[in-house]
Design goal:
Blueprint lengths: L1 E4 L9 E8 L8 E4 L4 E14 L2 E6 L3 E4 L5 E17 L7 E4 L6
Antiparallel strand pairs: 1-2, 2-7, 3-8, 4-5, 4-6, 4-7
Length: 106
């Protein structure tokens, strides 16, 4: 997986925009959630799946998923890979992300 962070490139004080490029079949091995920050994800190429708590959803190009702060999430790329843009912010100060090891059931 590759990532490109754009906050400084767009000269934003708080808005975070990140491109994640996942190779075919790549599964992010951990999940994460937040206390306060909500996020939106846009699939700009390829396809895959998102796991939201215990629910799996298929994703394809141009799907947009808004994720509430407390919902744990992670991604898995399909056979052609998947490029995602993640949009969030830096609130609260210092961040509020919580990593979740061993997020996938299978």
């Amino acid at each position: 997986m590759q990532s490109r962070f754009a906050r400084s490139a767009i000269e934003s004080e708080h808005l975070g925009v990140t491109l994640f490029r996942c190779t075919p079949g790549y599964r992010v091995p951990w999940g994460h959630r937040h206390r306060e920050q909500e996020e939106a994800y846009v699939v700009v190429a390829g396809s895959g799946r998102i796991r939201l708590d215990g629910e799996l959803r298929d994703l394809r190009q141009w799907d947009v998923v808004r994720v509430a702060p407390s919902v744990a999430r992670s991604f898995e790329a399909g056979p052609d890979g998947m490029d995602l843009i993640a949009i969030g912010n830096d609130r609260p100060e210092g961040g509020d992300g919580e990593l979740i090891s061993d997020f996938w059931d299978d």
